[in-house]
Amino acid sequence: xxxxxxxxxxxxxxxxxxxxxxxxxxxxxxxxxxxxxxxxxxxxxxxxxxxxxxxxxxxxxxxxxxxxxxxxxxxxxxxxxxxxxxxxxxxxxxxxxxxxxxxxxxxxxxxxxxxxxxxxxxxxxxxxxxxxxxxxxxxxxxxxxxxxxxxxxxxxxxxxxxxxxxxxxxxxxxxxxxxxxxxxxxxxxxxxxxxxxxxxxxxxxxxxxxxxxxxxxxxx
Amino acid sequence: xxxxxxxxxxxxxxxxxxxxxxxxxxxxxxxxxxxxxxxxxxxxxxxxxxxxxxxxxxxxxxxxxxxxxxxxxxxxxxxxxxxxxxxxxxxxxxxxxxxxxxxxxxxxxxxxxxxxxxxxxxxxxxxxxxxxxxxxxxxxxxxxxxxxxxxxxxxxxxxxxxxxxxxxxxxxxxxxxxxxxxxxxxxxxxxxxxxxxxxxxxxxxxxxxxxxxxxxxxxxxxxxxxxxxxxxxxxxxxxxxxxxxxxxxxxxxxxxxxxxxxxxxxxxxxxxxxxxxxxxxxxxxxxxxxxxxxxxxxxxxxxxxxxxxxxxxxxxxxxxxxxxxxxxxxxxxxxxx
Lengths: 220, 337
What we know:
The complex is a heterodimer.
Chain A: H1 4-42, H2 51-66, H3 69-75, H4 77-84, H5 90-114, H6 118-126, H7 131-142, H8 144-164, H9 173-183, H10 187-215
Helix pairs in contact in A: 1-2, 1-5, 1-8, 1-9, 2-5, 4-5, 5-8, 6-7, 8-9, 8-10, 9-10
Chain B: E1 4-15, E2 18-30, E3 35-39, H1 46-53, E4 61-66, E5 69-70, H2 76-83, E6 86-90, H3 101-111, H4 116-129, H5 145-157, E7 163-167, H6 175-192, E8 195-200, H7 203-209, E9 212-217, E10 220-226, H8 227-232, H9 237-244, E11 261-266, H10 275-283, E12 288-297, E13 300-308, H11 313-325, E14 329-333
Parallel strand pairs in B: 3-8, 3-9, 6-7, 7-8
Antiparallel strand pairs in B: 1-2, 1-4, 4-5, 9-10, 11-13, 11-14, 12-13
């Protein structure tokens, strides 16, 4: 039904979409995980409460999260250009994706760590653990299932956002859907790309949730 | 020098602009090798008190000496080192849910910087000590409450502590499991010479294992001494309330209110004599047995009985006198039984 060129284009689209999603999730966590840990530690009932640090972190997090992704994408064009040398294409899209995802991830991480039983933290303190040891040996370990669920949700979110970046020349399946499906009225291509996005989303979701359940030792 | 010395300890909390005094000027000595019970109703401040011993709660006023060292003088790092010499177990076990029994016991050793293989070896020995050798690969969710507490005990012992703090350690367990955990604690105390501090609201826990007891009421230390003494002749209302465990008992029959009631405690020797039968034969007047119980107090059998005396006051007084002559501890009881 499609000629070779279209098939090839779609395959490249899949590759680009996965590339944008996974790489931005990764770098999102590089920024967001420490960010979330700091929020958790400095919050009122955290390991080392600090109102000023928490206040600033909380404020920045809310600001970035309240900017719609599409606007952020445009606002960040000069920044993106400075970092990757161009403002279009899938690599360039990763920059705003990461900036958008990091505060979101920080919140997800913060709330995952909050779920860790205060009693277990107290037990660790009673054993003479330092705050750093509590973070790495208690919080991150005990919250791993919840953290992984967060990764799955974030990846799904970034898959959607990467498609949105197609409107400004971001590449990937979203780009194809917009260019062929919307501008050229080629409904068949649009449907195929949308279906592919759904399939990719389902696969990510399934793998993530199954793996979380697999490593969870709380209920058996 | 006592293992643990608490001097004029006061702890206040700020709650919504109000100052709450959780502990009020408490002084306490706990000797090396003791099993020391701290008992009080919930909210009495006993959990705060036990957390002062390892400085999880820092006192507002007063000092805590552990092994002769004033905890307030230690740096954060020295304090962490000190804490690793004080094991602690909790009501809710507080095990790491994502680690196996073995992993949980290795945890304090890893924190102390021990090599993983050495930690594992030590953890296996400890699992054997608490009779759970076959459960090393089990996760806490696969263990029963008693087994979880055993793992927690093994974990608390991993760093070879000199002191073991037990914060309501048996409150979430059924009576049989409580019994087995308590005998494990007693064994640890005897074999390893570890000083054990037991926080509880159950008198039965204190009478079963403790040598000494302190009673905390509303943040104040109201009574302390040898368990036998406190059990035989409690002086304060708080002590009586805890010993009679009246809330847990049946509701009193209306008629019994008016009677004069006494509580007698039998020791081992007097248990052989038919004291009550003799009493009735001697005075030719009936007594009403309102409650009778035997308990294991510090390894010795103690009988406890509450009697309703006949109406005549002269007979009442004579009966009390006669009982005292047999060598029993007799106290008058005001409370409903």
